[in-house]
């Protein structure tokens, strides 16, 4: 058996408000969406903004439900809504924010990482991710594969 190591390639900052104004604007828009999240069970609110190459944006936030599997994460709410409205447009960036002051942004769950990767694989350019928290911390991922190095696509489901 061969031993292998996977590393995640990303950048961080302790204050996302020092980014250029467009990124700050998008994170603030995600924060507005986060504040409208429906999270009465976990009390963990998340906001997301999907930005297309042409500057069009779509927002999302987590939506919980008493039947726990019926809820959905902010990232998937924003992505599914964005691709339903604009199926042919390429997504440039996803901005995600959570309430936290510990400096470490909460990364998307595995399901969201898989969805982000597959959406990215269906378009000609990679999707960048800015993952922030309300305390100022930020992690930047150049592409979806950096966030999910062993993700898979529809080819894995083909029989053969």
Give the SSE map.
Layout: E1 11-13, H1 21-35, E2 46-52, E3 57-61, H2 74-85, E4 91-98, H3 110-121, E5 128-133, E6 138-141, H4 144-147
- Total beta strand runs: 6
Number of helix segments?
Answer: 4
| Structural class determined from secondary elements | alpha+beta
Give, in spatial order, the strands making up the sheet with the most strands: 1-6-5-4-2-3
Helix % is: 25-40%
Low-confidence stretches: none
Rg (C-alpha, Å): 16 Å
Q: Helix-strand pattern, N to C?
A: EHEEHEHEEH
Q: Please state the overall shape, judged from the principal axes of the Cα atoms.
A: globular
What does this structure look like?
27% of the residues lie in helices and 21% in strands. With 160 residues, the protein is an alpha+beta fold. A six-stranded mixed sheet has the order 1-6-5-4-2-3, with helices on both faces. The longest helix has 15 residues, at 21-35. The two termini are 26 Å apart. The mean pLDDT is 94.
Properties at a glance:
21% strand; alpha+beta; 6-stranded mixed β-sheet
What's this model, at a glance?
The protein contains four helices and six strands, in the order E-H-E-E-H-E-H-E-E-H. The chain has helices at residues 21-35, 74-85, 110-121, 144-147; strands spanning 11-13, 46-52, 57-61, 91-98, 128-133, 138-141. The mean pLDDT is 94.
